[in-house]
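Lecture 7 notes. Example A: sequence first, then its structure tokens.
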Amino acid sequence: MIFDTDVDRAACVDNKGMPINRNRLVALAAAIALEQCPGGTIVTDSTTSAGLKLFIEDTLKGKHHRYRRGYRNVINEGIKLNESGENCPLAIETSGHAAFKNNYFLDDGAYLITLIIVKMMQLRSEGRSLDDLIEALEEPAEEAVYRFDIIYSDFRSYGQKVISLLMDFADKNPKCRMAPDNYEGVRIYCSADEKDWFLLRLSVHDPVLSLNIESAHKGGVAKIKKLLKPFFLSFSGLNISSLCCEAE
């Protein structure tokens, strides 16, 4: 079991030495939450994987509400959905912040780990393990994150301009299709099965644009980078050295 210093975030390592964090932690917490709330909505931040959405909706028969980064944003969205009549048992960020409805939507890492331990013991009595609970989760073959410093004092306006122009760029490219649920930045699918995608968003606090790329195929990240490089090279107000200097 792993906690940050004030125990509002948590993760764990299984009996095979594999970390259960990020998308795997969200999947495990969602599986536990939806046992008591069939068909409920799981709120997550914007960077969750394509496989996680399939796991929540196809395997667990819940609903995935992909929202914004920032644990308060995620938690407040879960509270808002419940107040509107939509049953949301869990709001969780890939950073490890998890807030359950039956724990008053507190971001409490100790509560999350306690639920995981209880579930682990229940599964053990059945001859099963935590891995069995999330074995249907499809994980990406490749993923990468790039951070571009914005070299302008009014970084938010400039960042929003880049995002807006990227939407126009993607709209004109037959290889791209915009995700319908964009609450933060823009997420673009680069494959028909939606398992190859990129997300460009403004950092919550810093003068930075973050680019997440994920692919279900080996070499997929390099293909998406090749598609995007000409677009980002046209902006003098961005430091994209992380994208350009990395070996293909």
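Example B, a different protein, same format:
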Amino acid sequence: MFSRVSQQNLDAFTALVGDLLCTDEVQSLKAICHHGMSCYDHSLFVSYLSFLWARKRGLDYRACARAGLLHDLYLYDGHDPSAHPGLQCFDHPVAAWHNARELTELSPKEENIILSHMWPVGKYLPRSREAFLVNTVDTFCATVELSKLYRRLELGKKLPSSAFFPALS
């Protein structure tokens, strides 16, 4: 299922999200622990798989790649209850949406993808096939990460991660 990244896919993916990867905000995700790894690598995992699966299904793969990368752009320590007002699962999609809107222009579809990525736990309903896709991919990625399969299968070497963008590391 997880073969090496093809250069063609990596080039197409980088063309869509490269401007975001260069920002201080996205780079700062490397310092945030999320599911036992950096939030940066988790976000790249979600973004890249969403991009691939959306492209294969004829969906808006640009929106999936960009919103997938920004879906956890909450920029605070989620393990610190004083960093956010309520429960992390409810707070972080809204914080990520606010931060993403300040970082770049978002389409309504991208906004909904970010806000609804915690559905059905979160309160925002996915309103497009792309939002359902990113939601499902995020859940899949979190499961792979929390079950330690990400490390056991050495997915960081097979999928875009910090190692794939050395100029940005």
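Note on Example B: The chain is about 60% helix and 0% strand. The two ends are 27 Å apart (CA to CA).
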